[in-house]
């Protein structure tokens, strides 16, 4: 075919045809871009085609649950074999679409609570997985080889023109909408309310094709709330070691915390233990982090200068608005989050990522994969990878780079800390000779074992037995013994070469609490700046409003 | 101070005070958010404070030149010691602000044509450089420790409410505005025109504080236009080797090209040489790339399925709009670019980066730094770094990973190709024992030598003498000899261990044109799909309109 008679605007024509079909199907029920929720199935039947790539906004927290439910209820005779693109599969309907044959292919990042059912549906041949990504990687593919044809998103409110206010939980919305609207795709938004005047416009109406008020507000999971009452004294000890052995040692000013009780304990020790070490103003000043309730006491103590967030956290809205010097808020005063920018910031502008894991092998590879569950990655692979594109220096980054000792050309290094108790629930050892990820890869036909953080990106492993600094290991054997040396009474730990481990300890590669001058007797819950949810509410001056399930008083 | 009497909204208060001062200074000249260009100095004097962090939109291409000029003309008694944040320093006024004492500190990414003057001003103590970044890294810091207090941006048009249309050259605007507007900062936009109805809203008025129509349209540099007439036959040969020895070898479908004649030659060989090898549909399908005019013949030949862009390219507007199946365009039909998303896409979703450099050392570190010039990095460190946060597999990525042969845990690898003639202009050797970057670091007080791409991230070095595959090198010595083995008649090349180089060639670590079955006699300009600018215009069906300076007919 010559260029002359080739058609170059098929996407635009197809888009126009679908919009016309929607207009016809909805008739006078369509008021500009607004339609009643009762007509959502008609809209989806009109604009979807078999085989479409469809992005359903399933975020880490915010869910386009009404649209997801509607999608799952469509007629599989008319709409089938969709290729779903989704950050997170969190709700049953996210898998119902596959079970019912409406969709057949999936590219995603994280599945969390649906991991076991996802594995079963893959085994049953009902889902073909394209790949599992980290969030920013999946967004990247939206602009290269996986642009969505139709996106189903969630916002707080729309005005009558179709402008959207995404509010505190903006999360993935800007990335999804941009990749769709600027590739001649179709954007459909569910909103909690339709108002005359939005607090602010977050997504211009020009980028949105349809908005529908959902019968119930969209679902939001309070994923980052940890009840301080459940923090153990072992976690307090590990948090003390983290603060004295890593935060203070490298003077880490810019950082990201993973999710969980281990890092919540660190947050709650900043205004007590870290303050007593004279670290205020010297560590933990700038954060890429959601508004963790556990950080309230540190914020109130003046430890924290700024926090940019991937998403928000349920109940933290009023607190965030009242602490606008710390958080990112709009001209209207309400919070703004943005996962794409926060992931970029966490990767390139933070000196440290610290997070928990489930399994670590002898090379330091860590994974949360377990057999029979395809849980995915989320954001950790991106935060927990050395940012090799980074060029600006900081004392922490330079010190880590010196310790890693690149041959020839000096270079900085990101600190990537994996924090784990040697035994997890049900006395499962956290240290293993071989990750479960290997067997999962074999049984699920993955090209590579699903490693969350690769050993050569990890700088430190922290357990209740001590800190192993992998940067200082000169070879694979030393690295293995450094890991065994903090692996406690697990089989991996018991098989240590005792003399070599003592030698590594002499060299400071392994450091135990006593080597750090930490008095273990102080490692009690008394050190926590808040010991209950009520303490957090009190610390916030009553501004924090925990979701009901966390109100135990 | 207790939390009770601590003030938590100083940024918001300060913002309100500045806006009130601006309203007072401008009086009735302020119509909503719009002011006449004659009052710009009054506005800037009203909203700026000494020591402010100010982001001036200097992009790779689009320049907020009117605002930059106004800034450089302010009264240094009133506005001084600004901390400038800027992607690119391209124009004289970008340095005038330092020369005149209005600004004193600088964090940036690239300085290009101002590199020599920048070095002089640093030596003279007029500029303190915070750090030099890659683009996405600098954007990341805007959300962590370098949020702009005031941003001076450029857009195509504003409406009377202050909504902005950024058009094809959106570039860095969304990242800058988001970091400022959501940190209680102040956003000032220069626009080419003020209209009743925008083609589409790109930046909502709620995120913008002031808009001013500039006397002249903002400057745009046609940075990615290369006249095919200037491509040499050596570049044709190197392009043939790239296509047959790398693109075909790894079946690279998703990629980014650096700037320059080397990669322009590859683009112009796709519809001729690559087509003759049966590679259409198998390589170079999806791109993270600006609309390079040299890619027009490949697009017309159906080689290219999609292109997402960092910015646009002057003269390509009509062509892009007419090829909307290939490019990212808005619902209004005009192009959209976005540097932040395209950098993320290039880093995480592309299998290869290929670009030119100035100097390569024996470890494969490459740099464009030369003494007396502080030129910065731009986007290359990010595109040319292994994406260690990537988790999705592709054949190219897996093959590169297998060749690199990670011990223990298998992993994919990004292909990072450095393409360079052994001698550059003025017979300067491209291969050196020690990069000029070392001396530049010493004389400029940098913490590390400014390396563009680190040797351990480079997979291939391609010269007219052949391709060195560094992934296959088993140790530092082999790597050094592989590099010497393609370094031609430079001193580095002449000092090769001939036997070892032949051994590397036997193993396929080094491959010469003849090893690839390339007939060097075919390496003539006849192989180029376009040999002149006029050929490009013709190939575009008259849609491409080159800037005047490229019209040589």
TrEMBL record, chains A, B:
It holds the Pfam family Mal_decarbox_Al. GO terms for molecular function: transferase activity. InterPro entries: MadA, NagB/RpiA_transferase-like. PANTHER family: ACETATE COA-TRANSFERASE YDIF, MALONATE DECARBOXYLASE ALPHA SUBUNIT. This is Malonate decarboxylase subunit alpha. It comes from Noviherbaspirillum pedocola. The lineage of its organism: Bacteria, Pseudomonadati, Pseudomonadota, Betaproteobacteria, Burkholderiales.
């Amino acid at each position: 075919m010559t260029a002359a008679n080739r058609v170059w605007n098929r996407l635009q024509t197809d888009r126009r045809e679908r919009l016309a079909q929607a207009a016809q199907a909805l008739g006078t029920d369509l008021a500009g871009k607004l339609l009643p929720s009762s007509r959502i199935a008609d809209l989806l039947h009109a604009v979807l085609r078999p085989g479409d790539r469809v992005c359903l906004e399933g975020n880490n927290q915010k869910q386009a649950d009404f649209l997801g439910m509607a999608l799952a209820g469509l007629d599989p005779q008319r709409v089938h074999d969709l290729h779903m693109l989704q950050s997170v599969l969190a709700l049953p309907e996210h898998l119902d679409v596959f079970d019912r044959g409406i969709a057949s292919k999936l590219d995603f990042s994280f599945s969390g609570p649906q991991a076991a059912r996802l594995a079963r549906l893959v085994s049953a041949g009902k889902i073909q997985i394209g790949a599992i990504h980290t969030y920013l990687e999946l967004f990247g593919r939206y602009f290269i080889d996986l642009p969505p044809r139709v996106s189903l998103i969630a916002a707080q409110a729309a005005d009558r023109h179709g402008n959207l206010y995404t509010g505190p939980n903006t999360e993935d919305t800007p990335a999804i909408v941009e990749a769709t609207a600027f590739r001649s795709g179709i954007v459909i938004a569910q909103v909690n309310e339709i108002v005359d005047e939005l607090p602010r416009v977050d997504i211009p109406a020009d980028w949105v094709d349809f908005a529908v008020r959902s019968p119930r507000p969209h679902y939001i999971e309070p994923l980052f709330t940890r009840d301080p009452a459940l923090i153990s004294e072992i976690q307090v000890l590990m948090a003390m070691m983290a603060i004295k052995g890593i935060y203070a040692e490298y003077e880490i000013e810019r950082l990201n915390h993973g999710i969980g009780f281990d890092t919540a304990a660190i947050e709650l020790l900043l205004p007590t233990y870290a303050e007593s070490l004279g670290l205020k103003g010297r560590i933990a000043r700038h954060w890429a982090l959601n508004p963790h309730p556990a950080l309230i006491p540190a914020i109130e103590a003046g430890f924290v200068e700024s926090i940019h967030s991937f998403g928000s956290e349920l109940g933290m809205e009023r607190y965030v608005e009242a602490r606008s010097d710390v958080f990112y808020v709009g001209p209207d005063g309400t919070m703004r989050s943005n996962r794409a920018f926060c992931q970029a910031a966490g990767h390139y502008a933070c000196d440290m990522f610290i997070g928990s894991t489930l399994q670590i092998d002898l090379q330091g590879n860590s994974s949360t994969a377990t057999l029979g569950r395809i849980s995915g990655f989320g954001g950790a692979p991106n935060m927990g990878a050395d940012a090799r594109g980074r060029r600006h220096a900081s004392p922490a980054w330079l010190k880590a780079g010196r310790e890693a000792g690149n041959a020839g050309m000096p270079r900085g290094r990101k600190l990537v800390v994996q924090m784990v108790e040697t035994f997890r629930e049900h006395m499962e050892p956290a240290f293993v000779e071989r990750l479960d990820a290997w067997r999962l890869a074999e049984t699920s036909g993955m090209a590579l074992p699903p490693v969350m953080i690769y050993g050569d990106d990890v700088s430190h492993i922290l357990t209740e037995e001590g800190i192993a600094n992998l940067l200082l290991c000169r070879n694979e054997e030393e690295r293995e013994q450094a890991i065994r040396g903090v692996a406690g009474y697990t089989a991996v730990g018991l098989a240590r070469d005792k003399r070599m481990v003592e030698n590594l300890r002499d060299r400071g590669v392994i450091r135990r609490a006593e080597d750090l001058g930490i008095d273990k007797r102080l490692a009690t819950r008394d050190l926590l700046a808040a010991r209950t949810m009520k303490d957090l509410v009190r610390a916030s001056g009553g501004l924090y409003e925990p979701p009901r399930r966390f109100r135990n008083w």
